[in-house]
């Protein structure tokens, strides 16, 4: 696949990014002091009447600051960045800085600088995302004298989306054990099964190893008809859990057979769920593995 | 100033001379607590108002978990690491750095250095800065030290380094 954008970007190699641009401020003691304070640098060479600026401040004197760059900047560099922005490579991070210090800068020095777009890389894939490396080289002068050179590389990239955003969170899995395995097998086959105690002839739900009426251990499964009404409900607003989209109604549904179960009511806004609302069983698939019984509202509640 | 750090002033002016540099020598590590204040102060002192260096909300919108240190601050810290060690007479000639794992607030960066090469009064030092999530910076610094005892009548240090001056360089001063 040919990289059309890459070819357009390459055309900027060798073009000037700044010509005879001027530093916004002369080299000065207050900016030096603020820098040293930030860096925790107590080097006495940066103080007093013979002070020099920390050499690593070289780029600082060329910065546009809050109000942007003064004159001397060409269109080329801004155009190059705009092309990348338009193509979706909107983020920027500095990756390399190579500085050579030829003569010290001292308070009062007024700097000028020339900058050239040295290279634009091929499309690269990095941990941050895919994008292009853009390298500029700058010469910083005081009058006719070269004070230093500054090569700077940035990555203009389209950020990689976080894994969390790529993969939606999954609903929690049910805890399946030997006491309720039959229930979940039924769900798998889209059957809602209720336990029927063969000792005292009572239905029970949720599934238990013994009858909660007589204690009898023997039972047979009975399939629910699927009809029910909302016996009670709450609306969940907070806190939000992954895979849930509040607000939503959590209902206690009384099945036609007389047992009650907790589920979601679907097909009606959360604030239209009412006690007595007739509902009908449905099986909703949430992902490749998870199917859950839910209840669809049968009439529009007033 | 945190424990373990030694400023240039504390080390004494001109603590080291060119004759004290040995290839293979390791510099003592420097721990830099990456505070939110350092990240913001470094960005502003370097006139860098990119929002990712001071506005956590906007940094997150751009896919970063928090604000992070700008490259100029890293550059300044690497320079400081070298001059803290070699003293105020040391002159930085070149600093070349490459960034890796970002410095986020709450982390600690440990700078370490190894003298790779000594050529007359000039040493090349390999510098590495590791933080809690990986390698923040790798770099090479070229630094020149004045000869230990400048000869009278000449302010050029182009000549070969003379033998250490026992008065200015007592044994053990250069560690």
From TrEMBL, chain A:
Domain ChsH2 C-terminal OB-fold: 222-284
Domain ChsH2 rubredoxin-like zinc ribbon: 184-219
InterPro entries (UniProt xref): ChsH2_C, ChsH2_Znr, FAS1-like_DH_region, HotDog_dom_sf, NA-bd_OB-fold, Thioester_dehydratase-like
One Pfam match: FAS1_DH_region
Organism for this UniProt entry: Streptomyces pseudovenezuelae
Lineage: Bacteria, Bacillati, Actinomycetota, Actinomycetes, Kitasatosporales
Protein name (record): OB-fold protein
Top-level division of the source organism's lineage: Bacteria
Domain FAS1-like dehydratase: 21-138
From TrEMBL, chain B:
InterPro entries named in the record: HotDog_dom_sf, MaoC-like_dom
Region (Disordered): 151-175
SUPFAM superfamilies from the UniProt entry: Thioesterase/thiol ester dehydrase-isomerase
Domain of life: Bacteria
All residue ranges annotated as the MaoC-like domain in the record: 29-127
Entry similarity comment: Belongs to the enoyl-CoA hydratase/isomerase family.
Protein name in UniProt: Acyl dehydratase
Annotated source species: Streptomyces pseudovenezuelae
């Amino acid at each position: 696949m040919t990289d059309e954008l890459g070819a357009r970007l390459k055309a900027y190699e060798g073009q000037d990014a700044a010509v005879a641009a001027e530093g916004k401020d002369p080299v000065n003691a207050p900016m030096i002091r603020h820098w040293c304070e930030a860096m925790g640098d107590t080097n006495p060479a940066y103080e007093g009447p013979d002070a020099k600026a920390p050499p690593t401040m070289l780029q600082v004197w060329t910065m546009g600051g809050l109000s942007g760059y003064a004159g001397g900047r060409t269109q080329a560099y801004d155009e190059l960045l705009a092309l990348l922005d338009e193509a979706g490579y909107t983020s920027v991070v500095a990756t390399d800085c190579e500085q050579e210090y030829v003569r010290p800068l001292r308070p009062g020095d007024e700097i000028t600088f020339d900058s050239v777009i040295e290279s634009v890389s091929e499309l690269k894939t990095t941990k941050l995302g895919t994008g292009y490396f853009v390298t500029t080289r700058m010469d910083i002068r005081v009058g006719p004298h070269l004070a230093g050179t500054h090569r700077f590389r940035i990555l203009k990239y389209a950020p990689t989306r976080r894994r969390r955003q790529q993969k939606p969170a999954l609903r929690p899995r049910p805890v399946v054990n030997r006491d309720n395995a039959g229930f979940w097998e039924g769900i798998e086959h889209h059957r809602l099964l209720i336990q029927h105690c063969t000792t005292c002839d009572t239905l029970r739900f949720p599934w238990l190893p013994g009858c909660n009426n007589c204690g009898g251990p023997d039972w047979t499964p009975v399939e629910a008809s699927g009809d029910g009404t909302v016996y009670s409900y709450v609306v969940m607003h907070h806190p939000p859990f992954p895979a849930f989209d509040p607000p939503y109604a959590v209902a206690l549904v009384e099945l036609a057979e007389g047992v009650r179960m907790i589920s979601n009511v679907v097909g009606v806004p959360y604030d239209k769920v009412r006690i007595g609302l007739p509902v009908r069983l449905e099986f909703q698939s949430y992902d490749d593995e998870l199917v859950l019984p839910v209840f669809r509202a049968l009439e529009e509640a007033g | 100033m945190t424990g373990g750090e030694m400023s240039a002033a504390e080390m004494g002016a001109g603590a080291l001379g060119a004759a004290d540099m040995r290839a293979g020598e390791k510099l003592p590590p420097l721990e830099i607590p990456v505070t939110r204040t350092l990240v913001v102060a470094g960005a502003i002192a370097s006139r860098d108002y990119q929002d990712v260096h001071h506005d956590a909300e906007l940094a997150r919108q751009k896919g970063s978990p928090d604000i992070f240190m700008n490259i100029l601050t890293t550059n300044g810290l690497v320079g400081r690491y070298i001059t803290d060690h070699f003293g105020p007479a040391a002159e930085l000639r070149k600093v070349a750095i490459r960034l890796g794992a970002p410095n986020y607030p709450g982390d600690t960066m440990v700078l370490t250095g190894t003298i790779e090469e000594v050529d007359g009064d000039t040493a090349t030092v390999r510098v590495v800065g590791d933080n809690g999530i990986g390698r923040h910076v790798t770099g090479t610094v070229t630094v020149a030290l004045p000869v230990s005892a400048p000869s009278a009548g000449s302010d050029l240090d182009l000549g070969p380094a003379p033998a250490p001056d026992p008065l200015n360089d007592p044994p053990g001063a250069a560690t």
